[in-house]
């Protein structure tokens, strides 16, 4: 039986580098017999280092969870077009931040220190999931993760993501909690419409992209994120929303990079309730390093190709 392959990147990993690695992993799922990354400008195939091809091929028939933390980065959804002035507001410090457009659904959001970014790559057809139900599965997995830390999360109809309404009840993540998957329930859409928040605080954002049945992107779960980063924009396009993290809710043991990594491990356990998945297997640090080196090489070639 397949295992959920958990790839955790060292912190901090630049957003663009993590995104390039995600592209490699997705293209491997789409065409495992000819692993290439194609430049969007020249459409020129870039051959991979043989040992990396071997690693990628070993991951082909498993769902993948890519988790990481980035330097301060704001991203937009695929249907958003921000003005130069709007981007300047986001990126101008103190402290400074970068901005990157993305292919995911949803509106502007923040990724950075103290946040767990989690990309789930799988074949919707194998899991018999629609895109909408996939979004709901992600939300349910996040809710189960919060429950391990004594936090009660919930979804809010037309607003994708996960919300909370009170402090933690003494959870510290030391006890795992697996519940029945909610993948068969209806899900909220993968893009948020503008509106006003009337109840609860938001702790996790969700935005996905699907290409030929293979999913990409996923969720951002606030662990110990500085709330000041959210004051530069209307979070997820919802007026009046307050963003919080596990630390803000009184959860212990979630500080620093190690705390975020532990939350990522908990999330992996909750995602592994997928039908037909036997458990979680952590991809080795050495293999992660080789994948990142290949992503850097490809990213450099694509950068040169654009000039």
What does this structure look like?
There is one protein chain. By secondary structure, the chain is an alpha/beta fold. Helices cover 31% and strands 23% of the residues. Helix 5 (131-148) crosses helix 6. The longest helix has 22 residues, at 285-306. It starts with a strand and ends with a helix. The model is unreliable at 37-42 and 175-198 (pLDDT under 50).
Topology readout:
Elements: E1 4-8, H1 15-30, E2 36-38, E3 45-47, H2 50-59, E4 64-68, E5 73-76, H3 84-91, E6 98-101, E7 109-111, E8 115-121, H4 124-127, H5 131-148, E9 153-156, E10 159-164, E11 195-196, E12 201-211, E13 214-222, E14 238-239, H6 256-271, E15 280-282, H7 285-306
Parallel strand pairs: 1-4, 1-15, 5-6, 11-14
Antiparallel strand pairs: 2-3, 4-8, 5-7, 8-13, 9-10, 10-12, 12-13
Helix pairs in contact: 1-7, 2-7, 5-6
Helical amount: 25-40%
Number of distinct helices: 7
The shape, in one word, is globular
SS-based structural class?
alpha/beta
Mean residue pLDDT: 86
Spans of at least 5 consecutive residues whose pLDDT stays below 50 are: 37-42, 175-198
Q: What does the main sheet amount to?
A: 8 strands, mixed
Strand order of the largest sheet: 9-10-12-13-8-4-1-15
Strand content: 15-25%
Alpha-carbon distance between the termini? 45 Å
């Amino acid at each position: 039986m397949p295992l959920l392959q958990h790839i955790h990147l060292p912190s901090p990993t630049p957003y663009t580098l993590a995104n390039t690695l995600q592209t490699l992993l997705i293209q491997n799922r789409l065409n495992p017999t000819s692993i290439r990354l194609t430049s969007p400008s020249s459409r020129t195939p870039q051959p991979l280092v043989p040992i990396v091809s071997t690693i990628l091929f070993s991951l082909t028939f498993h769902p993948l969870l890519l988790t990481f933390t980035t330097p301060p980065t704001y991203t937009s959804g695929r249907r958003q077009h921000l003005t130069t002035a709007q981007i300047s507001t986001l990126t101008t410090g103190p402290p400074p931040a970068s901005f990157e457009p993305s292919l995911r659904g949803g509106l502007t959001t923040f990724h950075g220190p103290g946040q767990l970014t989690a990309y789930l790559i799988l074949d919707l057809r194998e899991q018999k999931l629609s895109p909408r139900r996939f979004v709901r599965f992600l939300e349910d997995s996040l809710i189960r993760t919060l429950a391990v830390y004594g936090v009660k999360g919930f979804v809010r109809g037309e607003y994708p993501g996960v919300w909370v309404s009170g402090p933690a009840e003494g959870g510290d993540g030391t006890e795992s909690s697996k519940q029945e998957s909610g993948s068969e329930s209806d899900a909220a859409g993968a893009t948020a419409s503008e509106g006003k928040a009337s109840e609860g605080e938001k702790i996790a954002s969700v935005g996905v992209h699907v290409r030929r049945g293979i999913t990409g992107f996923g969720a951002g779960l606030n662990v110990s994120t500085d709330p000041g980063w959210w004051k530069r924009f209307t979070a997820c396009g919802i007026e009046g929303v307050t963003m919080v993290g596990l630390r803000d809710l009184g959860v212990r043991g979630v500080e620093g990079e190690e705390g975020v990594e532990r939350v990522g491990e908990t999330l992996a356990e909750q995602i592994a309730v997928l039908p037909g998945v036997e458990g979680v297997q952590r991809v080795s640090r050495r293999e992660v390093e080789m994948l990142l080196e290949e992503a850097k090489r490809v990213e450099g070639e694509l950068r040169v190709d654009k000039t």
